[in-house]
């Protein structure tokens, strides 16, 4: 698997559950890793055959301005869904941090990992391969 990543993306957004967090933007830091099954760009040398981290960065900036969630968990899930749904990642790890949220803590946050759902065709193909491996070939008697 090939990994495209962005580390230390810093932005400002309104997020949280406490009254002090709901009226002014606060800093958050995002790290993300998006996995592709052997990126075609390795062979073609074309940005269109991989995930363009510049475009992902722009999408994160837009998300910071537009989202309506309160919890970092929901925010991280939204990022994971974007990477899988809009950018075609097969696997993602997303870490979202509020730096210096408390005076005695360097950072608080969440980290999640998600896999893209298998398509029905891929799932059926895996089932057929399992049958073939067991010596049973569908449709042959």
Automatic annotation (TrEMBL):
Enzyme superclass (EC): lyase
InterPro entries: Dihydroneopterin_aldolase (IPR006156), FolB_dom (IPR006157), GTP-CH-I_C/QueF (IPR043133)
Keyword vocabulary terms for this entry: Folate biosynthesis, Lyase
Metabolic or biological pathway: Cofactor biosynthesis; tetrahydrofolate biosynthesis; 2-amino-4-hydroxy-6-hydroxymethyl-7,8-dihydropteridine diphosphate from 7,8-dihydroneopterin triphosphate: step 3/4
Pfam families to which the protein is assigned, alphabetical: FolB (PF02152)
A Gene Ontology term for the protein's cellular component: cytoplasm
GO annotation terms (biological process): folic acid biosynthetic process
EC id: 4.1.2.25
Reaction catalyzed: 7,8-dihydroneopterin = 6-hydroxymethyl-7,8-dihydropterin + glycolaldehyde
Domain of life from the UniProt record: Bacteria
Gene3D superfamilies to which the protein is assigned, alphabetical: 3.30.1130.10
Entries under SMART domains matching the protein: FolB
A molecular function (GO) term: dihydroneopterin aldolase activity
Residue ranges of every copy of the Dihydroneopterin aldolase/epimerase domain listed in the record: 4-114
Protein family according to the UniProt entry: Belongs to the DHNA family.
Protein name: dihydroneopterin aldolase
